[in-house]
Structures
1.
Amino acid sequence: MEMKGKLGVFLSKIKNESGEYEILQLLEKSLDTTNPEKGEVPIKLLGFGEISLVFEILSDKTKNLAFKRLPIFDSEEQVNKHINGYNEYNRLLNDDLQIEVPPSDAAWVYADKKMKKISLYCIQDKISQPESIGNKIIHQVGIDDVKNLILIIMRETKKVWKFNKSNVDNGKQIGLDGQISNWVVKNFDPKDPHVTIDSKLVYIDTSTPMFRINGEDAMEGILFLKSAPFFLRWILKLFFLDEVLDRYYDWREVIIDLIANFHKEQLPEMIPDLLNVVNEFFVSEAKEFNIEPITLKEIDKYYKNDKMIWVLFQNFRRFDRFLKKIFRKKYDFYLPDKIKR
Ligand SMILES: Nc1ncnc2c1ncn2[C@@H]1O[C@H](COP(=O)(O)OP(=O)(O)O)[C@@H](O)[C@H]1O
Ligand SMILES: [Mg+2]
């Protein structure tokens, strides 16, 4: 796992002669979030999560890099804190827990002339084989390979909760978003697509630093909600923020989320078999954690609930964008086409 010592290497690829991130500044200035590939800086979308936009910048220097744009910061202090958390999170996962993550870096620029808003770009090695990302794999292989994938994901996530268990006393806890789209299978061959229990995984979703020291989050939780329309933020903060954040620190919840996602991926028929893998794992390889088996009913209930929250959220964001268009304000976030659920 060669990651240490790489910090900073990527940044030289996006600096101009005066040491500025000129290409990111230009990108910020010209980015059209409804049509991100049509701006002045040629980019190609690699993916998006519920909140972030992930793309490559089509230039010689940057061609093997993935950029995750987080346009959510109000001050240098805030963004620097986030970058420290991000670097530490990557280090914790990769070096301390031996969960491999791609080499990474971070750079920020002011997103507007008044220097009020800041966009952070988390930079990673680009995954060279898009087919090797979990949410693509599960549509290319049969149930036995998907079961293997879930088993090896269980083994990776166990590293986190083993750490958490042994650090309860000193108050250091690590969170993880176990969703299938956050895992990449190394050496996956789309021409002979298979996942075995010896396959190696890479975890890519590191831009949200999730660790706590004595109950204090490395990231400001409220940043999570920055993509929410202003009129919704306080509601979300009141009712959902703690619940949403805590979920990533609870192994059972993380796995429920992982399995329930097969509904969204239109593969509900796989769920019973995958639940068997998970529950079998809990009573064998993780028996010291005393985790209660997850039931099908819980998965279905969770999915309906989660779906409701996110559909609402996305629809509110569309409405918010509509309002901003009317009032000619810049809309900061990319809105995916209606996600099929
Ligand atoms: N390094 C990368 N190379 C190629 N594609 C990536 C990379 N990182 C992320 N992606 C794509 O973008 C998607 C979202 O990225 P992720 O880091 O999981 O952000 P989010 O927090 O929004 O889920 C991934 O599922 C993947 O399809
Ligand atoms: Mg993700």
Note: DSSP finds nine helices and ten strands in the chain.
2.
Amino acid sequence: MKFDILVIGAGPAGSAAATWAARQGRRVALIDKARFPRDKLCGGLFTERSRATYRAVFGQDFDLSRAISRTEIAFWHTGRTLAVLHDIPPLHLTMRRDLDDTLFRHALHAGAADYSGRAIAQLSDNTVTFRDGTTISGDILIGADGVNSIVARHLFGAAFSGDSIGFGLEIEVPPTAQDPANQPLRIDFAAASWGYGWSFPKQGSTTVGVGGLHAPNPDMKARFSDYLLGLGLDPAQTRFKGHYLPFGDFRQTPGRGPVLLAGDAAGLVDPITGEGIALAMQSGQLAAQAALDALAAGAPETALPRYRTALKDIHRNLRIARRLRRIIFAPRWQKAFTATFRRSGTVRMQYMRLLAGELDYPELARSVVARLPRYLLNALRR
Ligand SMILES: Cc1cc2nc3c(=O)[nH]c(=O)nc-3n(C[C@H](O)[C@H](O)[C@H](O)COP(=O)(O)OP(=O)(O)OC[C@H]3O[C@@H](n4cnc5c(N)ncnc54)[C@H](O)[C@@H]3O)c2cc1C
């Protein structure tokens, strides 16, 4: 079978790419090892940034009927409330099982060929051979197969670097232990080193997790147990589930020739908030558009330079976020940061506006920098 574009991975990045390209009339194969609906370890926080991206890519508003929406959030630090914010731009809590199934169905509806539930045996730049022996090929391949990407491994020998990768642990707390409707949406700075903890109420359960950079947290399970105990939950009652996540170390060159990487496979996760769904959908769309333009020009090998140009803004934001996070997460600056966060309503609100997609990192950096003590500023410049 010959296609214009092969997309490997049908999460937010892959389904966005496949939908975008199929809607332009291109022959697209959407490949995933899983059958949908399937679970994906994730907080499922779907911000207004995600919602706007969803609208831009899929051409309709996101159906929130299976989500919980909140306009209040509590920030904690080492067991004490740091701030409770009211009237923030809404935050939506989804289950990835539902969300990803919806995105996948959009792609099929747009005309992508369904290659889900198929294990890949072999991969080259433009062909995929499945375990049953079937081979399909395409002029352009988009690797949207997540943090453990086999496409990234095929191109670069490894899916990610162990020095800079993030890692998260989560459990779903059933309503018998906690009624999600009465739980606040809560984020705990310092629940992990260079990371945080979260408690996200959903319809039917509460997702509780801890995540951050993997290297400074060799004891993430112990940190998570402590966090659960602090929430009044018994760590012995549930099995933790873990998953890597890119956390600031994006790929400067997200592909090679006619092969592009999108979403987690390209390392596109916000290094402060850990938000990856919006960037996955956006990069999927940008990869697909670069592929479409390259195909229209009759030069599939030009897809990568086109895509790199399209990603410039995202990369710039992530670079600034990586610098900023030093003053948020570095243990030596935490005290000063939490004091600033507690004191400055503007910094807190700007942070929430960032999550809502109403402002970007360059703007946030300007606002934060204006309010920082001089010694922190100097640390940031170094
Ligand atoms: C613990 C944790 C909590 C998080 N919380 C949030 C949050 O609250 N909000 C947020 O915005 N982001 C969150 N993230 C980040 C978010 O989950 C990811 O950034 C996002 O899922 C990336 O989407 P993607 O499409 O690139 O990859 P994925 O969602 O990982 O999708 C990849 C797809 O590729 C398929 N695949 C993988 N390997 C193969 C293969 N060999 N062959 C075929 N198919 C394959 C998989 O089955 C999967 O369907 C969290 C991440 C973690 C780990």
Note: Residues 277-296 form the longest helix (20 residues).
3.
Amino acid sequence: MKYGNKRSLLQISGIFIVFTIVGANVVLAVDAVAKQHRPFPDKIYSVVEKAYRQFHEYPELGNVEFQTCDYIQESLIQAGFTQIIELPNLLTAVIAVWDTGREGPTIGLRSEMDARPTQEPAHHDPCSKINGVMHNCGHDIHAAILLGTAHAIANDDSAFRGKIVFVFQPAEEVRGGADDIVACGILKELGIQALFAQHVAPGTPVGRWNISPGAVMAGSNYFNITLKGQGSHAADPSAGSDLPLVAARLVETLSSIPARSLDILNQPMVMSVTQISTGEHSALNVIPTQVTLGGTIRAFYDLDSPGENGKSARDVIMQAIKGVAATYDVEIDFELRKATPPTQNHNELFDLIIPQLQSAMAPGALKVTHGRGMFSEDFAYYTPHHPCLYFSLGVMKGEKGKNGVHTPEFDVHPDTLPQGLLFLWTLAKIASNSDLSVIHITE
Ligand SMILES: [Zn+2]
Ligand SMILES: [Zn+2]
């Protein structure tokens, strides 16, 4: 991959250097600026708008965000960043450190960068110029806002303390990304005391943010089931195991586990079968000897953690599967792969930051809700290791911002950009002036 002006980068492979200049503490005045409409110089807004158009028109899939990575690096260098960290195993990640030179905490702001394999409708503006690839999860917006925040802070950091780490993370939509960044240990080495992110929320108005305490998004798990039995002619099903019928029974059994075999309040879970296959070469008059099923399980807890009766969700699933196997006298093999853990908003950090943020913003702009979702998000990988907060960003205004993420119709109102910039800047300012030494995390 090409990097822009490598001479001005602090090149680090595994080991890094952080310059610390201890300066005078800044006593922050009441946040008047956050209540203004366009409090930043015009050049900051044009950074955000240009970056958004660039990322949206040239979307790149996970782990190959090379052009996006180059653009971000070059822009950060132009803004005056000198600490940009290269990670040998994450070629498209950009992690940049802004040191205010004043004593204070180290906070992190994270965005994603990757797009998805979707054809964008031609009438969109801006519109993807890459066939079959589109930013329809808002990662272009997140990255543009984060880049703008970096420029705004580099332009004037007098309201900030400590260090602000900008984490442009690749591969949220595919494997790698957040888990790889956590695994390489860079955020621990940098001493990140709190990490923040916002994600577009279709249907939520521009100028509104939502946040919930505790576990806000489920962990994802994936399963494969193989049924093996006696095949037969389709005209004579009693001569064999009739595996398609067993598979149908199994789908019913598995789908009813969350509401009937688990405590729905204390062990909420969704188990969905998404694939059933009898093999590619089956004739229509042959009952096969093998059927495979696959799907996903979403839950806010580890499937191996015991419930109040001592049984884990995995135990309950296995018991149900064995029951079907015994009833129909077939062989059933169950494989479970744990993927993203649940996304946890850190309660102490929540209590410290959210009231300050609410009073700095327009009344009602930041709503505390108790909404949770069974969707999952790889920001979850950070949450067991760093105190984190994950916000929903309103994108709807007029006819824009109504359609769901991952759909070809997904779009956002352009006013999301300045609003998201002001929000992230305000959040960073509050966090960088807070005493984060009182925040703890148990790993
Ligand atoms: Zn997505
Ligand atoms: Zn996303």
Note: The pocket of zinc ion (ligand 1) is lined by residues 137, 173, 405-406 (CB under 6 Å).
4.
Amino acid sequence: MTRLIQARLINEPFDDPGLFLDFRFSRRALLFDLGDLGPLSTREIMRVTDVFVSHAHVDHFIGFDRMLRHLLHRPGPVNITGPVGFIARVEGRLGGYSWNLLDGNSVDFRIVVQEFSGDRVTARAEFRAREAFRRRELDPPDLPPSRVLQEEAFSVEAAEFDHAIPSLSFALQEKISVNVWTPGLTRLRLPVGPWLNEAKRAARQELPDETSIHVATGWEVPLGELREHVFRQGPGQRIAYLVDMAFQPENRRRAVNLARGADQLFIEAGFLNEDAALAHGHRHLTAAEAGIIAREAGVNRAIPFHFSARYFEREQELRDELEKAFANPVATFTPG
Ligand SMILES: [Zn+2]
Ligand SMILES: [Zn+2]
């Protein structure tokens, strides 16, 4: 099945963390983390509408300037989610430059920043190019707990983790996928047309079968009939991105919860088990701990990244430790 959204790591696993989520059928992309964005083309960066930053350690946030440089003359806003205190971080980065060339005639580029803390978005502010990026407070959006973005076709969830500082991880959940089966349309003698978009939307919203779908003037068809003959529905994919967290019970519970049932779990796996003490000192996961979380969450595939440079010659060992813990109900090593 063709996936609406395709995810790929921006860098090699020893370089900065970051995930690029590309929408196949529209000029749009999302970013999880803002590390080195070097491998992304200008065109790809220009597609980014929403960015989700785990925390402000430099390897997760240094790409902000590069993104800003590209988006500055784009009319569409960029929305950025980060942990508590993040609005001030963005304000600080913007404050590092002179903006005297911006005025009321500039392209109306806006940066909307929201902070996620506990289990919800707690603060929001915007910075407009036309106002030389002065901070303007906004009311936080009205979103359900754990949501940082909610749209018709998908949503993004966040959870907060202990990494000595608060660090966020994210999961994108597509709603059900709905495709049209053309022979079914022919059989019901229904025309192709814009009404199908409305019908697909109703299906994605999981409205009841009796829902009446408007085809043309005086021509209605029940949603259930379309479900039976015209639509091919599949589960929407879940893509989880877990970074920079200590392996402790509450983090583990939240990590498993966020990654549960993911088709793809991108997870930090930076340290070998032999260096578990070091990993824990830095409030990071080992590869084996990443594997335990992947197994407990029942994910389909775990993709490790954010490897510590100390293992430059030992990449396969990191991958093996994760795979072993992912596959075995009883791990043969003891996480520290
Ligand atoms: Zn960190
Ligand atoms: Zn990191």
Note: The radius of gyration is 22 Å.
